[in-house]
Amino acid sequence: MTSPLNSISSPTAAQSAPFDVEMVTTPSAIEGEWRQLEATGYGTIFQRYDWVDAYVRHVLPHEKAWPAIVLGKLHGRPAFILPLAISRVGPARVAKWIGGNHSGYNFGLWSAEAVAAMSSMKRSEVERMLAHALSDADCAVLVRMPRILDGVVQPLASLPRSPSATEGYAFDIAGGFEAVLEKTNGAGRRRGVRTKERRMAKVGTLHYGASEDLTQASAALDFFFEQKALRLTEQGKLNSFAEPGVLDFFRELLERSLTMDEPLLEMTELSVDGKLRAVRAAGIYRGRLNGYFMTFAKDELVSQSPGHVLLFKHIEECCERGITTYDLGVGYEEYKTHWCDIIHELDDAYAAFTPLGSAMIATIRLGQAVKARMRQNKFLWQRLKTAQAYLLRRPSE
Questions:
Q1: I need a surface site. Which of 116, 326, 327, 329 has the fewest CB within 10 A?
Q2: How far apart are CA 134 and CA 38, in angstroms?
Q3: Which CATH architecture has domain 5-164+346-393?
Q4: pLDDT digits (tens, 9 = 90+) for 13-63
């Protein structure tokens, strides 16, 4: 573990970058600078102070990782923050974004001045700057970085990178719900939703809306965790939501969101006859709604697609609230193509600081290349997924 504040401002560092750079091991050590950049700079909800701080408190210790948060300053003013953590991968110490699979987009936080300064830096200068800040790491593996965010090119784009295995899906809703439906041929979808609503209403009172208080929101969150575990067990897939600390992390996001105009986590639900049938979870930052996850109950109403009905109603409600962008998150799902016309291209970037780090990055990139080739062979990819599902379902001896 390093000390809480590890300043690397030095003549050597100054020659390689226009920034004074510090590394801290607790978000609270730079909370003021963080909130300033969060209010004025470029970033995503997954790099907001409260989101990262809650993850560090509840999940990071179970991942056997320690925070290595990089703060860069220009002329004494906060310029950028990279919320990173270091963990051991085999013999190497690897820096990664804080948030793991639960952080959809990883951009960092950047002031306009920092973006401009980074655009003039060479790859070697960026690598030296990161190496100075991340003195405890052999390398950095920075995944799922948007190539462009709000018109701003990723400031770390000079690093060696390759396309991520996934991409993000979003659509503009600033023009209102009718415009969204017209753009996505939604007239038939509206008729279908109304038919399903009438059928569900025959079972009992149909209720839709955001959770009204912490108790109701917590119940909706528990419903998601229960249903998600059932679905993933059926499919033989790993459940990242079952990892230690994850439920407590999301519970804290709910608590912190109570007094926020733009909540870190907001639960929206569809219930019929007093029973939860579907829930969606999302956060809002600068008018953009980021969908986190959703699930539905596989009960007598599953044929009425409560999850799709909830999504339709939620989009309509977000239009009425004045939200500008609805982001369905990272990962391909067929239903996303029915709504989305914005594809966020994502990159994985790499920086090696030691010979061991170079070897680790070469190994990681080779594995990703092999995996990508297997994806292209549908027969091999399906066999791999079948074998993985079998091993996950097989009881441990």
A1: 116
A2: 22
A3: 3-Layer(aba) Sandwich (3.40)
A4: 434 469 999 999 999 999 999 999 999 999 999 999 999 999 999 999 999
- pLDDT tens, residue by residue, 191-219: 999 999 999 999 999 999 999 899 999 99
The answer to whether 5-164+346-393 and 174-323 have equal CATH topology is yes
Q: Which of 226, 197, 239, 221 is nearest to 279 (CA)?
A: 221
pLDDT tens sequence across 361-389: 999 888 676 666 655 566 654 655 565 45
* CA-based R_g, the chain, Å: 22
Tens of pLDDT, residues 82-109: 999 999 999 999 999 999 999 999 999 9
Q: CB of 268 within 8 A of CB of 310? A: yes
Domain 174-323: CATH class, spelled out: alpha beta
Q: How far is CA 315 from the centre of its chain?
A: 20
Question: How far is residue 191's CA from residue 288's CA, in Å, rounded to a whole number?
Answer: 27
């998601």: which residue's tokens? 224
Q: Which residue has the tokens 């208080």?
A: 213
User: How does residue 189 score in pLDDT terms, banded at 50, 70 and 90?
Assistant: confident
Residue 134 three-state SS: coil
Handedness of CA 198, 200, 205, 206 (dihedral sign): negative
Phi, psi of 278, rounded to the nearest 5 degrees:
-160, 150
DSSP 8-state secondary structure symbol assigned to residue 363? H
* Phi then psi dihedrals of residue 197, to 5 deg: -65, -45
DSSP assignment of 222-241, as one string? HHHHHHHHHHHHHHT---GG
